[in-house]
């Protein structure tokens, strides 16, 4: 939680989604803008011209009459400097409908963050148990190498005394070398698993170790029916699907709300001038200096009448709602399937672990018996080597079996949306 870059990124995405909702709500804030314009051109029925500005309403005031006919070759200047204010007074719920869409996006981002935390938690837990399994395999290989070294010494002593054939020494040397290679590989696997754990945790160092606390502790399994219900309620993927449907419904309402009227206040202060002569003669203004002052205050009601694009968008959004409802059902079924599979995997892994424990115990007893027979001269080196190989294989299988139990429990906890 403190070091994983992926988790830091999802937190940032939640903040981005929240600020996106603030962008929509900002439509209630006033808009203040200014402009400065200068034009040259013919003037027909007006002594001034100007271009509209998004943040400033410019009513057609301040102009004087000019000749009804204008020669295209006659060019006059026109200037404008002004500042305007626009403020929404009442939108009849349009902004609220758009805000609901953005707020649902923030909710989905929060659920996605929960989903990412569960996935990262599963990766951390799996990597943690992988380190422990690698250590257990390394211990088994090291113990096997120690036993092979002791057998090598016994065989060499027997060969020197003429009690063992030279082939026994060769076989013992091969076995010891084989276990030495296995020990070297096991140590390398420990570092690889530690590197993987450091990566999924986001640790600053290249390697991160894991310490086993209680390898035999196994939590009680919850009742499967209760687990299903709890997982459906807590699974972030289901929550994301539900939030997506709610957002799509908000999109449909928002499209319908685009037909709602809007009421806003507008005000501006400007200075204008135009150089075209009026019917009464020259106006006395050059048109280059915007020295004719004007101001205005007004309330504007905007009423949309028909927009075929909005109708099409609303119809598309309603169709998308039907798709999302089916996806919610599919997501719930997927969760139930994952829980059932993970639960069965835990049971299988536990049963296999019990068998592996019995097998490892029997393999140790078999090795002890073979070792005693070998020391008394009743067993060959091959018989002891087979017993040693069987014991080592059983110890490694037991270590892997414990890892499978731990990992299956982690997968089951993830399926229940509980995680670490």
Task: List the defining traits of the structure above.
420 residues; four-stranded antiparallel β-sheet; alpha+beta; single chain
What would you say this structure looks like, in words?
This protein is an alpha+beta fold and 420 residues long. The longest helix is centred in the first third of the chain and has 68 residues. Helix 1 packs antiparallel against helix 2, helix 5 packs antiparallel against helix 6 and helix 6 packs antiparallel against helix 7. The protein starts with a helix and ends in a 5-residue tail after the last helix. It has a 4-stranded antiparallel sheet, with no helix packed on it. The model has no long low-confidence stretch (mean pLDDT 85). It is built from 7 helices and 4 strands; from the N terminus they run αββααααββαα.
Layout of secondary structure:
Blueprint: H1 5-25, E1 31-41, E2 76-90, H2 94-161, H3 166-201, H4 224-234, H5 236-256, E3 262-274, E4 292-302, H6 308-375, H7 381-415
Antiparallel strand pairs: 1-2, 2-3, 3-4
């Amino acid at each position: 939680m403190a070091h994983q870059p992926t988790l830091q990124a999802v937190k940032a995405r939640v903040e981005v989604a929240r600020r996106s909702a603030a962008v929509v709500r900002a439509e209630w804030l006033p808009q203040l803008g200014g402009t400065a314009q200068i034009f040259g051109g013919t003037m027909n029925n007006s002594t001034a011209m100007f271009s509209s500005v998004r943040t400033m309403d410019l009513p057609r005031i301040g102009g004087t009459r000019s000749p009804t006919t204008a020669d295209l070759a006659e060019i006059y200047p026109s200037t404008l400097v002004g500042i305007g204010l626009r403020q929404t007074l009442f939108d009849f719920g349009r902004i609220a409908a758009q805000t609901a869409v953005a707020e649902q996006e923030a909710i989905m981002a929060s659920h996605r963050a929960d989903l990412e935390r569960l996935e990262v938690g599963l990766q951390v837990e799996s990597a943690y148990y992988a380190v422990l399994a690698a250590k257990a395999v390394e211990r088994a290989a090291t113990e096997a190498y120690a036993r092979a070294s002791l057998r090598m010494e016994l065989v060499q002593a027997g060969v020197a005394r003429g009690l063992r054939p030279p082939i026994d020494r060769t076989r013992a040397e091969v076995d010891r070398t084989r276990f030495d290679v296995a020990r070297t590989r096991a140590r390398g696997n420990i570092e690889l698993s530690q590197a993987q754990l450091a990566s999924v945790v986001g640790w600053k160092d290249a390697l991160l170790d894991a310490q086993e606390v209680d390898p035999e502790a196994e939590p009680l399994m919850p009742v499967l029916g209760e687990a299903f219900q709890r997982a459906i309620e807590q699974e972030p993927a289901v929550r994301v699907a539900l939030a997506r449907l709610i957002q799509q419904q908000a999109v449909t309402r928002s499209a319908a709300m685009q037909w709602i009227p809007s009421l806003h206040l507008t005000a501006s202060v400007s200075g204008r001038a135009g150089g075209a002569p009026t019917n009464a003669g020259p106006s006395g203004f050059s048109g280059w200096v915007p020295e004719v002052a004007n101001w205005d205050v007004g309330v504007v009601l905007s009423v949309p009448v028909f927009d075929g694009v909005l109708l099409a968008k609303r119809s598309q959004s309603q169709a998308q709602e039907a798709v999302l409802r089916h996806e919610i059902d599919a997501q719930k079924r997927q969760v139930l399937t994952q829980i059932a599979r993970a639960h069965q995997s835990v049971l299988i892994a536990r049963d296999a672990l019990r068998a592996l424990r019995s097998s490892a115990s029997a393999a140790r007893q078999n090795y002890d018996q073979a070792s005693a027979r070998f020391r008394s001269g009743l067993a060959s080196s091959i018989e002891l080597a087979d017993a040693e190989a069987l014991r080592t294989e059983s110890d490694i299988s037991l270590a892997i079996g414990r890892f499978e139990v731990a990992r299956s429990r982690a997968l089951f906890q993830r399926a229940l949306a509980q995680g670490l």
